[in-house]
Amino acid sequence: MIELRLPPFRIIHAAYVASDLDAGKRRLSALFGVEDFDTYSRIPIEVPGGEAVIDFVVADANGSCLEVICPAGGKDQVYRQLLPADPADVAFHHFATRIESQAEWDMVEETAERHSLAVPVKGFAEPGTSYIYLDVRAQLGHMLEFIWDRGAGG
Length: 154
Hints:
Elements: E1 11-17, H1 21-32, E2 38-47, E3 50-61, E4 64-74, H2 77-80, E5 91-99, H3 102-114, E6 121-124, E7 129-136, H4 137-140, E8 142-149, H5 150-153
Parallel strand pairs: 1-4, 5-8
Antiparallel strand pairs: 1-5, 2-3, 3-4, 6-7, 7-8
């Protein structure tokens, strides 16, 4: 197995995918006892060659953020490819971790390049926030998302 050089792990959220957002919410409620969700619809996500569109919910589970993503169009294969067979279920997709400096961001990009890791998502959100996914399923069994709020950490 290759040794990945990654920044410190500062978990922001655990993300699941579901083909039915309401079913995904019910599943997380049953598993983790969460009831209150913030819902986001038709959110564009930059992916190589275009844009994915997703609907998602986030919930606080005793201080840990949980997310359920439902692919909703465009080039959403990065989410769609990991959907569970049962539409009433969820499947784990990725952990998101916080980046705190340009050096850490560079480390992520250098690791992706050095090990020829797929980068299925890379873009910018609200002003000053960058995000990137590394496909480390071969190494870890899931993807990793790195989020850098440049206003907060760089």
